[in-house]
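Dear colleague,

Thank you for sharing your sequence with our group. We've completed the structure prediction you requested, and as agreed, I am returning the results in plain text so they can be pasted directly into your records. Please verify that the sequence below matches your submission; if there's any discrepancy, let me know and we will rerun it promptly.
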Amino acid sequence: MIALVTASVSRELDEDLPILGAALESAGTQFHCVNWHDDVDWSRYSAIFLRSPWDYHLRRDEFLGWLRAASRVTRVFNPYDVVEWNSDKRYLGELVAAGVPVVPTRFVGSADETLVRDVLDEVGNDVVVKPSISAGSHDTLRYRDASMALGEVVAHVSRIVAAGAVTMIQPYESGIDERGETGMVWLNGVLSHSFRKGAILAAEPDMGNGLYAAEDIDSRTATNDEVALGEQIMAFLASRFGTQPLYARVDVIPDAVGRPQLMELELVEPSFFLAYAPGADDRVASAFTNAQR
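Please find the predicted structure tokens below.
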């Protein structure tokens, strides 16, 4: 018996859960969908898989404490050290140091106005500001004319820092408006499928469900250059952690000349968007089933 871990606030929003559940049933794998924050005897499961604990960024210390405790009595995927590292987006700095092309990012730990102004002078005037500990575009805003909204930007940085995170300031990469993001899902270091996600910040994001921004998803085949970037990142992960993670989602967008660059690496609880990739449900179910053995 395995557990697919979710949360009470996101359980009904996870469109992958019923698709994956049906594929697991077809594979003969028994499972429960369980909220991470409930009182559960986790030792009863041969393995637990993080699927949609989409409130973890709002209570990260509690979530990591739970995951650490669960790791003592069963196997968790992805493992604790991977999740801890990936749950704070300062991991991007390590990828940059390893030569991975990443959306230019400045990490700001203070709401000092002079510091923020200096960062904007460097990054540009059309910027995205978000917390290093975040998910689903939570507290992520685009400022199209940041110099004219300096007070708002500083207040935003102050709010993020007060919540215990570091602020990320990135240039808005306009190539996303036409191509969108390419998401690639990797299982044990092998590409399973890819998809297209529309530009969330091209307009005001729809946060109507109260948890994450509504997403425009469609099918897509990743280009050779995008796949090569994903392979570079998989090689980094194998070196960094000694093995490939069971699952990884690599989200890339084009830079100013159209080359793919990493926007985000999702190793905690990524949506797989199984409805947009025929056969992906069976591949994920097989990976989960084999991982528990």
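Summary note from our side: The longest helix spans residues 224-241.

Kind regards,
the structure core
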